[in-house]
Every structure is written in structure tokens, then in C-alpha cells.
Amino acid sequence: MSRGVHGVLGLVFVTAMSGALVAGLQAGLVYNSFPKMADRWVPSDILALEPKLRNFTENPTTVQFDHRILGESVVLVVTGLWLWGRKQPLPPRARKALHCLLAAAWLQATLGVSTLLTYVPVSLASSHQAGAVTLLSVALWLAHELKLLRRIPK
What whole-number distance in Å separates Cα of residue 71 and Cα of residue 83? Predict the structure, then answer.
């Protein structure tokens, strides 16, 4: 389970860094619909810049698309980890951290979609940024609780 939590930590971190690009480029203002971007699943201007690699850091459409995919991946991976972890014999603190991780991931996704659909009001955008820190912190808490399990003598 600790490998899965470390994977979640990495995914949440990369997603938060992707969110920094979204904020910096004001990419949240480009497509304000969900789950599609306007009327398409993959927008036509996703690879508009040359060389193509520039799109991942400079094209607001690509940056928003990447952040959406990463955010959805976090929710899926965390939900899968929770489904698997609830069947495992975990101590109460690790179980609580696991439940909090699920709640934080879904709350963060809800904040992200709400921020997008309401054209990025500052209050929701800052809550979404704070949610990223919270989600990363809860994932670290779970990793810490699982690390403690290995130190407990049997």
C-alpha cells in the first residue's frame, strides 16, 4: 500500500505544479465547460505552437487539458487506493488518513470544476489552490502512518 501512496503523492505534486501553470497562464479562462472543452473532448488548438513541446508550458489550452486529465487521474487513483485500502487491516490512524485522502481528493476535484464553471472567481480559485496543499498534506500523512507500520514490532 505504501507504494500506492507514494504514487499518489507524486501524482498530486505533478497536478499541483500543473495547476501553477494554469494560474500563471490564466488558462482557466480559456474553456469554461466540463467535462468537454467547449463541444470537444480534445480541443483542436491543443498543439498549436511550434515546436510541439512548447504547448505543454505555453499553450493555455494544452495546459488546461493536461491539468484536467491529471486532476481526473488523481480522483481515480485515490478512489482505487481507498477501495483497496478499506479491505486491508490498517490501524485506526492510517484508516482515518485514508478516508481523509478520499474526501480531500473529491473536494479538490469539486472545487476545480466549480472554479472552472464559474469563470475563476478569486475566492474559489484560492480555495482550489489551498485544496492542493491540503490534498498533498493528507497524502503525506497517510504515507507517514504507513511508514510507522513497518517500525512497529510484531
Answer: 18
**pLDDT above 70: residue 93:** yes
Residue type, 34: F
Query: What are the start-end ranges of the H helices in the chain?
Result: 2-25, 55-58, 60-85, 92-117, 122-151
Q: Judge whether residue 153 has pLDDT over 80.
A: no
Contact call for residues 71 and 97 (beta carbons, < 8 A): no
Quick one: pLDDT at residue 1? 84
Indicate the pTM of the whole model: 0.93
Asked if 111 and 123 touch (Cβ cutoff 8 Å), the reply is no
pLDDT at 2: 82
Give the residue extent of every domain in the chain. 2-149
Residue type, 31: Y
Measured distance CA(72)–CA(106) in Å, rounded? 10
